[in-house]
C-alpha cells in the first residue's frame, strides 16, 4: 500500500530543521574558537593559560609569541580582591 507523499513533508521539514540547527551550532562553535577545533578535558592549568591568553590577545584561543607583554598588561590582574567591611 503506497504512502501519499503529503504525509512525508513534515518529516522532511523536521530533518531540514535538525540539519540547519546542527550546521548553525557548528558555525557558532567555530567562530567562538577562532576557527580552531574545540578543546575538551581541560584541567586547571589549561584554564589558567586560556585566561592568560585572553588577557594578552583579547581572544580565548589566541596566542602570541612576543617576549614582551603589551603595555597595560601589568595592571591586568586576574585575581580579584574581596571588599573589606569598614
Automatic annotation (TrEMBL):
Q: Which parts pass through the membrane?
A: 12-31
Q: What is the membrane topology noted in the UniProt record heading this document?
A: Single-pass membrane protein
Annotated signal sequence is none
GO cellular-component terms in the record?
mitochondrial inner membrane
- Name the source's superkingdom: Eukaryota
Q: Which UniProt keywords apply?
A: Electron transport, Membrane, Mitochondrion, Mitochondrion inner membrane, Respiratory chain, Transmembrane, Transmembrane helix, Transport
Quote the subcellular location field of this record. Answer: Mitochondrion inner membrane
Q: Which family does it belong to?
A: Belongs to the complex I NDUFA1 subunit family.
The record's function comment reads: Accessory subunit of the mitochondrial membrane respiratory chain NADH dehydrogenase (Complex I), that is believed not to be involved in catalysis. Complex I functions in the transfer of electrons from NADH to the respiratory chain. The immediate electron acceptor for the enzyme is believed to be ubiquinone.
What protein is this chain from? NADH dehydrogenase [ubiquinone] 1 alpha subcomplex subunit 1
The organism named in the record is Sodiomyces alkalinus (strain CBS 110278 / VKM F-3762 / F11) (Alkaliphilic filamentous fungus)
Amino acid at each position: 500500500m503506497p504512502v501519499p507523499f503529503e504525509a512525508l513533508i513534515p518529516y522532511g521539514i523536521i530533518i531540514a530543521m535538525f540539519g540547519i540547527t546542527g550546521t548553525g551550532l557548528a558555525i557558532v562553535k567555530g567562530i567562538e574558537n577562532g576557527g580552531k577545533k574545540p578543546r575538551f578535558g581541560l584541567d586547571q592549568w589549561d584554564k589558567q593559560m586560556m585566561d592568560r591568553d585572553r588577557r594578552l590577545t583579547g581572544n580565548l584561543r589566541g596566542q602570541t609569541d612576543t617576549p614582551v607583554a603589551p603595555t597595560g598588561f601589568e595592571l591586568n590582574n586576574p585575581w580579584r580582591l574581596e571588599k573589606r567591611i569598614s
